[in-house]
Fold:
Amino acid sequence: MKTALIAIGLLASTATTVAFYPSGTSLIGHGTEINVTAGGELASVNPLTLQRPQIEVVFVLDTTSSMGGLIEAAKEKIWSIATTMASAQPAPEIKMGLVAYRDRGDSYITRVVDLSTDLDSMYATLMDFQPVGGGDGPESVNQALADAVQKISWSENSNAYKVVFLVGDAPAHMDYQNDVKFPVSIAAAKNKGIVVNAIRCGTDPHTQQQWQHIAELSGGRYFDVNESGDAVVIATPFDKELAILSEELDKTRIYYGSAKEKAKQALKVDASRKLHKSSSLASRARRATFNASETGAGNFLGENELVDDIASGRIEFSAVAPESLPAALQSMAPAEREAAVKESAERRNDLRAQVQRLAQQRKDYVKKEIDAVGGAASSLDDKIYSVVREQAEQKGMRYESDTPDY
Structure:
């Protein structure tokens, strides 16, 4: 059975939330509340439970050559930003998106990555962005903001915290013809309940003036960071093990469904493999921490993940068509399939417990390092957290910590 399980992990590549939970747990996920009895069994499923609070965040990021330091900082900090946002009470659902921009005449003007709970795929795209072009003053900021407002699939939920972080070091071209100017886009954003915050990199005074105006029009916040982003990046003795555990957790995922659904799942699996191969140990450690959170389950699981669907009671094994299963499971007898899925659930529980323990040790280590230098109030991490904490609380979410996750 161990051999069969390894084969499933290699062929299906996976990740999911815990299959069995402590007594008295009430979990809300995928629009469903799951109550757990004193014996640890799933007692009831209530699909009418109120949905989690929603956070929808889009980064509008200048990707020209002068932004190299900030782009690298973004690649390192996306997971800790997500973990920080996930620490709200009640635990929110988080969707992230990205609009990368340059200028007319560059290899692209904008590239849009739509909002999704699949942060792995968004991150895999972010990894591909390299700082190229620019160097000639203003950029296509107007086009980027217009795309962020009009091409992103923002929800119609008036209670969602919908936010854009505009990040760049050069002002908008205001001389282009057939260009939607930023005041028009900001007005459209306000109508959709989207707040725009502006982060200026560097010291350009024209950018400062324009970014402050953008934030003022939106009712958002403006702040500065230096060219490197002022982000807190601390390597810890726990990063390597957390990165390994994160990859092992992914191998417990078992996806099923139609050919179309399997194709979509394969893209997610490919994104996960890419980040395990190419991102830093610290970044993978931060991803492990996020995925182990209640909010991180959406990214960890994706859609049609068999282990979690069986454990949560959303489906019965007998209702799953054999042809919808991965090939390794299709070749097994029914009893063997159930045993394999149960073993994956138990393996996942053990790995997730290890991640949670090490994540706390990592957090304590980083806190000591930061306290030793007098704090990190000027960092990108703290500035974004300050903004999120203030704005999300207006939507009913509480952040109790005085500092973000780093």
User: Anything to note?
Assistant: The chain is about 45% helix and 15% strand. The two ends are 40 Å apart (CA to CA). Residues 2-51+235-363 form one domain.
